[in-house]
């Protein structure tokens, strides 16, 4: 929808950053910010004076750049990663959240087909049920990353535009909203583009408030999954066992998570479901490291839908297993 910054402009932005990189530097005179303002005025009907006031109050945050540039820690094994999200405290608080918002959750499930427990698990994994949603001003996060993080400048410039549009359209103060260091927002940690595409007003008060209103947050997470193709009533994963050397291309690796082979093809290749599964269903092979060995799964279409929220097989499995524990706790 919008043109991104040209390479020459990015170079100019880098020069600007090198010349003026103090923590208290605002972005009013930044060349790339000027271009963004020009585009928002001409393409989206913004008032320039209002934009200038916003960019004058948006500040570079070195801690954000440090967080983005920090070398990734060694990837945790599944048995270590799982313990972060599948533990008594997160399960118990998920059950409490479900019970507190049961009517809203069950309405969301009826209207979208997305299980209430999956919605709760997403919110639980992302923000501990709204308790830890980020302490950075979103405007600082997005301007810092758009104008002082060249590697992903184009992406965050787009997100900055989406953010300014959504705050204008929703009547929100763009200088007040808080989020993660990457600009993710609210109970479900939506980026601005996701907010504009999937956030909904689920309580009919003419505002989609995913920051303070759990009703809108629940409806928005459910809508995200519906829009990404969740199949109501379908399985998510099937446990499997190995009966041979499975070809590498059939297994999930990094961001390769889309199902491309049928359950029958997996069985023929040596990854056999241990319970009934539709032989024609497409799946992706998954292997997870345990403390004393490996475990194997076949991720089906709905598993892939969960990975559209975060492109990680371990993330998706954590959401799924947390949802199972929450559902069991609610049923007790």
TrEMBL record:
Swiss-Prot/TrEMBL keywords: Signal
Protein's GO biological process: peptidoglycan catabolic process
UniProt keyword Signal, yes or no: yes
Coiled coil: none
GO MF annotation terms: peptidoglycan lytic transglycosylase activity
Tree of life domain: Bacteria
Domain Transglycosylase SLT: 36-324
Active site residues per record: 126
Signal peptide: 1-22
InterPro entries named in the record: Lysozyme-like_dom_sf, Lytic_transglycosylase_MltB, MltB-like, SLT_2
Descriptive protein name: Lytic murein transglycosylase B
Gene: mltB
């Amino acid at each position: 929808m919008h043109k991104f910054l040209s390479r020459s402009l990015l170079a100019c932005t880098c020069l600007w950053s090198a010349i003026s990189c103090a923590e208290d530097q605002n972005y009013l005179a930044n060349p790339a910010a000027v271009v963004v303002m020009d585009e928002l005025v001409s393409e989206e009907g913004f008032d320039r004076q209002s934009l200038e006031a916003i960019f004058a109050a948006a500040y570079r945050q070195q801690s954000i750049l440090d967080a983005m540039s920090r070398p990734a820690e060694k990837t945790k094994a599944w048995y270590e990663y799982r313990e972060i999200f599948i533990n008594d405290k997160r399960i118990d608080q998920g059950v409490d959240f479900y019970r507190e918002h049961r009517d809203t959750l069950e309405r969301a499930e009826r209207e979208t087909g997305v299980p209430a427990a999956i919605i709760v698990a997403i919110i639980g994994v992302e923000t501990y049920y709204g308790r830890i949603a980020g302490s950075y001003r979103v405007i600082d996060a997005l301007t810092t990353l758009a104008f002082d993080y060249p590697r992903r400048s184009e992406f965050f410039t787009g997100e900055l535009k989406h953010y300014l549009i959504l705050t204008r359209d929703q009547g929100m103060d763009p200088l007040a909203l808080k989020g993660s260091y990457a600009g993710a927002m609210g109970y479900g940690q939506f980026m601005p583009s996701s907010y504009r595409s999937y956030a909904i007003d689920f309580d009919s008060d003419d505002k989609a408030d995913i920051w303070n209103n759990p009703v809108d947050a629940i409806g928005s997470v459910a809508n995200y999954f519906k829009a990404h193709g969740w199949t109501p009533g379908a399985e998510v994963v099937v446990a499997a066992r190995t009966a041979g050397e499975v070809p590498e291309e059939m297994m999930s690796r990094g961001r390769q998570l889309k199902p491309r082979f049928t359950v029958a093809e997996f069985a023929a290749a040596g990854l056999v479901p241990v319970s009934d599964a539709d032989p024609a269903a497409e799946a992706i092979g998954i292997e997870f490291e345990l403390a004393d060995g490996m475990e194997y799964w076949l991720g089906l279409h709905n598993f892939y839908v969960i990975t559209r929220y975060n492109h990680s097989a371990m993330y998706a499995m954590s959401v799924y297993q947390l949802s199972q524990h929450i559902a069991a706790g609610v049923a007790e």
